[in-house]
Amino acid sequence: MQRLRDAHDLHSLTRDVLDLCEPYGPVHSFKLVHNRGAARVVCFIELESPKQQPLLVRALGAKVIHGSACLDIPVSDDFGSDARISIPVLRHEVAAPQITN
Asked: Would you say the pTM of this structure is higher than 0.85?
């Protein structure tokens, strides 16, 4: 777990979490949520094999929320400030309707 706390950005944290999950089989679902104000990242993990899920939870010291392993990882205040990858902001624009006379 110390390795996770020492991660500097989402990319390295993702790599480290997935490395820890590898012995338990393929990951089916994976989500990271970064709370900058609290300097924490919450990670939700679901494995392909439901039988392996409890083993992963015990090994990581995780909690279970709706069947997913849930890790609450404290990170440094500057976590992600030197990110080498950028996540694009998706915008959905809707054209205003045309009025005809």
From this structure: no
